[in-house]
Design goal:
single chain; 183 residues; mainly alpha; Rna Polymerase Sigma Factor, Chain: A; Arc Repressor Mutant, subunit A; 9 helices; elongated; transcription regulation; DNA-binding; DNA binding; Sigma-70 region 2
């Protein structure tokens, strides 16, 4: 509670000090974000992921990590810190929702049943991705199946985010041509 009291003046958060501490990678500042804005983040996440309460903790962790990693992108001229944090949590929740709703039944293993209604679409996804080289296939899987952002997928493959965008663009063009030839 003492940490928060040093950042609260007259009931208003001194965001400049908090943001400065976050930029300086002060872990205590992240605890302040949780204490002061945690209810707002949780509210946005639970409203977005109301159908998937099991994802709430993951979304909260993703949002906090994103706030921590992207604090340099916060622009007080565009929005308040509270609204920026809420937007970050909203986007992370949407990413998880997209991943969950699109690929809920995409997992194939030895026990998959052939009468599964998604089985044929899963096989089609495998067939389409098999047309890509291993690096592009992994990038596609990370972004479009696992639901990682371009930056996260690029980081996992030790390439720049710009390079990831270019690879996906080239792969999409290739797949459009490939599907046209194989349909």
């Amino acid at each position: 509670m003492g940490i928060t009291n040093t950042l609260v003046k007259g009931g208003n958060m001194e965001n400049k000090e908090l943001i400065k501490r976050l930029k300086n990678r002060d872990e205590d500042a992240l605890y302040v974000v949780i204490e002061v804005y945690g209810k707002v983040l949780k509210g946005v996440i639970s409203k977005t992921l109301w159908k998937y309460p099991s994802l709430w903790d993951e979304a909260m962790n993703d949002a906090l990590l994103s706030i921590w990693q992207n604090i340099d992108h916060f622009d007080p001229q565009k929005s308040s810190f509270k609204n920026w944090c809420a937007a970050v949590s909203k986007y992370k929740a949407i990413d998880l929702l997209r991943r969950e709703s699109k690929f809920k039944n995409v997992i194939l293993d030895e026990n998959s049943m052939t009468n599964d209604p998604d089985f044929h679409s899963n096989l089609e996804i495998e067939e389409i991705l098999s047309a890509l080289d291993d690096e592009d296939k992994k990038l596609f899987e990370n972004i479009f199946i696992r639901g990682l952002s371009y930056g996260e997928a690029a980081s996992e493959q030790y390439i720049s985010t710009e390079n990831a965008y270019q690879k996906v663009s080239r792969a999409r063009k290739f797949l459009r041509r490939w599907r046209g030839e194989n349909i």
